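Incident review: delayed structure delivery

Summary: a single-chain prediction request sat in the queue longer than the usual turnaround. Root cause was a stuck worker, restarted by the on-call engineer. No data loss occurred. The affected request and its eventual output are reproduced below so the record is complete for anyone auditing the incident later.

Affected input:
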Amino acid sequence: MGDRVSTGGGALGAPGSRIGSYTIERKLGEGGMGSVYLARSRGGRAVAVKVARSELAADPVFRERFLAEVAAARAVGGFHTAPVVDADPDAPTPWLATAYVPGPTLAEFLHARGPMDERALRALGAGLAEALEAIHRCGLVHRDLKPGNIIMADDGPRVLDFGIARAVESTRLTATGHAFGTPGFLAPEQATGDEVTGAADVFALGSILVAAAGGSPFGGGTPMGMMYRTVHEPANLDAVPDGVRHVAAACLAKEPERRPTTDQLLDWFEAPAERTEGSGEPGPGPGPG
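Output delivered after worker restart:
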């Protein structure tokens, strides 16, 4: 584990202050866990340091789960994640450091460039499926996959925050009784409080494909309204190109066991683009655990 938080004479998170052995350069934003900072290791390597909010730091359940999740997240490899490089769950303010991946989030990318065509959607889907395969292989479930925590790096999409969602979820459920996740991307079983497996991440991947194509699978409005439609109404796939629509539909099946596995998705995404529905694309299968 890393060193304890040291402010280096400045406020926590201020430029020039330190978190562990990392010197803060600037704030990158806010995440589900708390604040995220761009920092440098003593050797000059860029890292993204995520620092827990005060209410999480005070919760012993969060600390226990955070410790377990970080241990599992350290084992996640693959080309499409930001690997965990350091953490201190026992610090007065728990923190987690990952490799810094430059690039816009998928949300920013879509805002700047508009909807993706079929070829770009296939590349996005393949990268996300590969990332989820690596995450699930280590016994983790992301639980909050969405355009805001996907970085569009030069070598493909990178999935962030895969090591902390369950720890944060435990506190949010205790404090509010609300489902953890983002309406429009969370799976029906998350909305209803049922068991969550890797199949929930596949559902989120389907929602991301719709969003990247310029659509909104469950419309807008209030979070409760979106969650109701997620559970009870079919997804709107009108914006999705024909060649990708059947895969998005399979991912968005209401029942977790009917969604394709990440391996099935990779088999399809690497197939020739001219392949059409009914010629070997993934169908219902056991969801990843």
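Verification: Residues 136 and 246 are 23 Å apart (CA to CA).
Action items: add queue-age alerting; document worker restart procedure.
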